[in-house]
Amino acid sequence: EFSGRDPSGRHVMGLLPAKGLATCVDADKRFLWDVPSSWTLEQAASVPVVYATAYYSLVVRGRLRPGESVLIHSGSGGVGQAAIAIALSMRCRVFTTVGSGEKKQYLQERFPQLTAESFANSRDASFEQHVMLNTQGKGVDLVLNSLAEEKLQASLRCLARHGRFLEIGKYDLSNNTPLGMALFLKNVAFHGILLDALFEEGNREWEEVSELLKKGITSGVVQPLRTTVFERNQVE
Questions:
Q1: pLDDT over 90 at 88, yes or no
Q2: How many helices (H) and strands (E) does the chain have?
Q3: 88, 118 Cβ separation under 8 angstroms
Q4: Would residue 232 count as lying in a domain?
Q5: How far, rounded to the nearest angstrom, does the alpha carbon of residue 11 sit from its chain's CA centroid?
Q6: 48, 25 in Cβ contact below 8 A?
């Protein structure tokens, strides 16, 4: 992801398949957005990857509908924050996992709509009991997962009937971890989410992602992340 000025001086941000860490990039117009005048270019550089991933996962692949329930792992991470913002804008019930009290406090300040029951622990599988308890044993409609191994299995068990599981971590996909086919007796769907696949020829889903991000910026759902800026001599 990158942000900068195009040849006519417009402030833009965008995505590239590679080589984005440069002073000059050869950008494709399909993967560019205008930067709102109230944002700095540093702020804009924090937006494209996380919000494109979250919209692609939740809305395009997961078909999230208003009022559904969602479990978002690692909520204080970039994609987590983007996903929480999108889910709350659709009046969804959000559960999220965090690894520390500081991260929970940060998210509560950023998203006042989150209550004490919205939070569970991402360091172990205790979130499964928390989610099942607070959904009267039904589970959630969507899981946005980035946890691995036994936590992935626990996350699968959090899915309600007709639920959608959105896997954005690559660990278990790369390791060919077995899932267990009985899971699909609940009429659920499992999606492997790879943002780089959107750059492939013939992928029709990109237009939808691009439009969602554009609308999200206009409506104020999309907000820059809190960032740390490194000088160029600190790149390594």
A1: yes
A2: 8, 9
A3: no
A4: no
A5: 24
A6: no
CATH number at residue 33: 3.90.180.10
User: Would the pLDDT of 140 be above 90?
Assistant: yes
Strand partners, 167: 145, 192
Contact 227, 97 (CB under 8 A): no
Domain interval for residue 12: 2-47+204-219
State whether residue 111 is helix, strand or coil.
Answer: coil
53, 95, 159, 166 from 187: Cα distances, Å: 24, 22, 10, 15
Domain membership flag for residue 63: yes
| Tens digit of each residue's pLDDT (9 = 90 or more) over 195-227 | 888 888 878 899 999 999 999 999 999 999 999
Query: Are 39 and 54 contained in the same domain?
Result: no
- Residue 226 in domain: no
By three-state DSSP, how is residue 57 classified? helix
Averaged pLDDT, 163-181: 91
Counting Cα atoms < 13 Å in the Cβ hemisphere of 208 gives 14
Phi first, then psi: give them for residue 154, nearest 5 degrees.
-65, -35
Measured CA to CA, the distance from residue 185 to residue 179 in angstroms comes to: 13
Least confident piece of the model among 129-133, 157-161, 191-195: 191-195
